[in-house]
């Protein structure tokens, strides 16, 4: 017997060798740079620069030093007059000499520690005060300076007020200073933070000083397309969040960690299954483009990053995204991973979190008494009689006798407190010449059904080294192995869906085991396939499903800074090469099983049912991507001018071979199959490539007037020659009116201290069409036929008519916005309004009809169009009171799409034209009836003037739905239907509220997230009682029903839902007509994240060699306020049979060594 390996060995060997070669290069690079970590010289002595400036601001000279060297300046703008103009003309001088010259005859002093330079003012009231050397009266003060997150602040300035005594903190935030006496006041200051004064006698406070952020002084750099720009000079609608906010989430996927945190980002967590992420769009425009460390990736790769390794996430929402060209018309999400810092000590961080999951909301099911009551009523309503006897009915209502006790299938199937854990260990640091970040993490998540689990292993390695002055080499390597495992059920469905379905399908009068014996799964008739005992029971021999990905990505970057050449100062050249390889192995083996019936009289178990359908599927596919980029950046500031510009050329290539085998094994046990058992063999291959050339110039004058111009020339393989290349420009402008003198001098300038007005317009191209539509020819393997000579003939069929004119989908995006700061930037916010138009959406000319004998359709043209209109806003307040610091923020966004152009739609009737013509209509919603309550009595039905059921109301019962006769013709017909509801996809309205606070080592982080203006329309299991002859949701116990189910003349008892039987007989179509009775336009607000933490004082932890140790409790999806009480508001399965999101409670710790 010949066995077949189902994974092509040659493919695996080829890429394995490539991987080994790549790892050899990486290890060599790592070893070389490890030695350089310890090759630290005295930077202040070895660094020399040349400068030639005439009457320029001191701030411009400092910026030039930062550009030419690795030095960073720290100073308080209130103390240092950086607008003062000076002249300097030096050649090859050390930095200290330059600082001495520009600050001569001033009261500015400086302190240098490695590459940190702190400037501070000498405001001595008494220049002749006794020096610090007066040992008889001075006291020694030591301590640590940290930010509100507990992180040490490097280079913070500590000075004795009214003296010349001063020092700065070291790389661990520690300081030591001699104060004249205990009444001396120590002044703590640092750029970006609010200064603080503490008396020298208050040793407890001085041992650990916390500085609060001063947003007015912060000058953060934001990652945008292919470069970085200071936040104050950003011209586009851009939002970003940092690692701290991401790490407050316990989600296993990055998309889920973003929910509710960024204005303009719409999300929906439709599933809580192991390893499931959230659906995400920017402004409801469609799937965004994901860029990770400068490389284009898909959502799967973004989703499976470990949030620990992410430094920041930036979202480009307007024309700022156009620089990325193809596929950027839906917005761009940029990810920057951590990379370490030059000249910092090595840090080792360990974090661990253990959590336990439970469903947020899953419909409760009827017990046996409720279900039997409903079935008797249903029989009587439909047939006027029932097979159930009064005696049986009474026994089930009592539920005490053996054989008449209710069984809770939901409790049997759904796990309680399913575990989820995350572990990460990372190290970072840097020397004069090298910086690094190394990380390893493990994520495990068990499913809520005792049949599935998800695991993921991530590695991240980012290293950069300066080989010679100006020349840097960097290598980023990340990889992961992720695996989803589950049982394989005996139906061709989602193997997790079957467990949700089993909760509805299994009757509470039936049990999973014959005679409750776990060795014998019970034969419950036609519902045997949903008896989950055959998959998870004690005697189960379930099939299995394994879906495994192995991914490795390597980026190598070479950059050279030309600042050492005076004429080329500010110019940097970069070359980047990226290699990505992933393979996916999928195996699903479906086994047969036996079901049993127990005979009480003979005490025997008989095999009476089961499944004999054995199936197996194996598939393998791999993805290989190559990307090359060359780039020139020019960043320069002089006088009142600032320029940030670049030009880029890049090309990508992607290959994707696939292989699959379907078979029918003869045995449950053998892991391999024979070729004679094959039922299908598949093999495929695809290859894509793209190229682009682009450039951008950002120009700033006097830090008030900003203009940014960019253009991109893209080529795509999908179009015919002559249509493959497109040019897509953009223009962005901003006016920092808050920097104008008249504004600062005005009364309102003290309230609105910062104001920036922005506008942008850009054009983008999208090649989201099928490839090679411009080719004619034939499609092979179009069916097989046996001809007269009994030979099999393979069929060929003509392709569509070639689409030789099809080209880019063209997108134009207009955005206006404002950024502001109030009350010294304690309150900051932004508001944006946008319009996106798309033209050239592919469609066929349906007014040209071809005979069916032709065998193909008309070609595709760029014919249709649509428009998105919306807005988003954010607001944040930062405050502090003594040792308490806090932050309250919120964001909200709205976006909706309208179809603007449809090519000559054809309709058979005027009604169809009215209902189905989408031109100039908002997308979303559907046609249905408007309900007007329910009938409350038979008398009301008899006197009702409107024909509600089309049969003179003969089939109506009390509790049935009343529909509005909107055209007033006395009948309920299709003419009474109207557009109701919203989209069933992502919400049109999204919002989030965050509250963060810290006090003396304690911290709390809270995120409320919500959405509105989207619909949930109930169908089948959550619309009809007992569908599929199984159990029913417990909510249907609250229905109109007879007081005595056996007596059709007994009184009606009111309820929320119509009576049973109305939908099942076929006599009454009133029950499940499309209407707003079953529709919920959802609005919800949920406590998405809650984290309570405590950082143990350093004087305690340092005894164990730990710099920082924090413990915390966290919760996810703990509380939800919504207007739908049957399912979780985020699920998108109409019948409710799904895997809802989970709530999670966790405990964990973070330790730094």
TrEMBL record:
<dbReference type="InterPro" id="IPR037066">
    <property type="entry name" value="Plug_dom_sf"/>
</dbReference>
<feature type="transmembrane region" description="Helical">
    <location>
        <begin position="21"/>
        <end position="40"/>
    </location>
</feature>
<dbReference type="InterPro" id="IPR018247">
    <property type="entry name" value="EF_Hand_1_Ca_BS"/>
</dbReference>
<dbReference type="Pfam" id="PF13715">
    <property type="entry name" value="CarbopepD_reg_2"/>
</dbReference>
<keyword id="KW-0472">Membrane</keyword>
<keyword id="KW-0813">Transport</keyword>
<dbReference type="GO" id="GO:0009279">
    <property type="term" value="C:cell outer membrane"/>
</dbReference>
<feature type="domain" description="Secretin/TonB short N-terminal">
    <location>
        <begin position="71"/>
        <end position="122"/>
    </location>
</feature>
<dbReference type="InterPro" id="IPR012910">
    <property type="entry name" value="Plug_dom"/>
</dbReference>
<comment type="similarity">
    <text>Belongs to the TonB-dependent receptor family.</text>
</comment>
<keyword id="KW-1134">Transmembrane beta strand</keyword>
<dbReference type="InterPro" id="IPR023997">
    <property type="entry name" value="TonB-dep_OMP_SusC/RagA_CS"/>
</dbReference>
<dbReference type="InterPro" id="IPR011662">
    <property type="entry name" value="Secretin/TonB_short_N"/>
</dbReference>
<keyword id="KW-1133">Transmembrane helix</keyword>
<dbReference type="Pfam" id="PF07660">
    <property type="entry name" value="STN"/>
</dbReference>
<keyword id="KW-0732">Signal</keyword>
<dbReference type="Pfam" id="PF07715">
    <property type="entry name" value="Plug"/>
</dbReference>
<keyword id="KW-0998">Cell outer membrane</keyword>
<dbReference type="GO" id="GO:0015344">
    <property type="term" value="F:siderophore uptake transmembrane transporter activity"/>
</dbReference>
<dbReference type="InterPro" id="IPR023996">
    <property type="entry name" value="TonB-dep_OMP_SusC/RagA"/>
</dbReference>
<dbReference type="GO" id="GO:0044718">
    <property type="term" value="P:siderophore transmembrane transport"/>
</dbReference>
<keyword id="KW-0675">Receptor</keyword>
<keyword id="KW-0812">Transmembrane</keyword>
<dbReference type="InterPro" id="IPR008969">
    <property type="entry name" value="CarboxyPept-like_regulatory"/>
</dbReference>
<protein>
    <submittedName>
        <fullName>TonB-dependent receptor</fullName>
    </submittedName>
</protein>
<dbReference type="InterPro" id="IPR039426">
    <property type="entry name" value="TonB-dep_rcpt-like"/>
</dbReference>
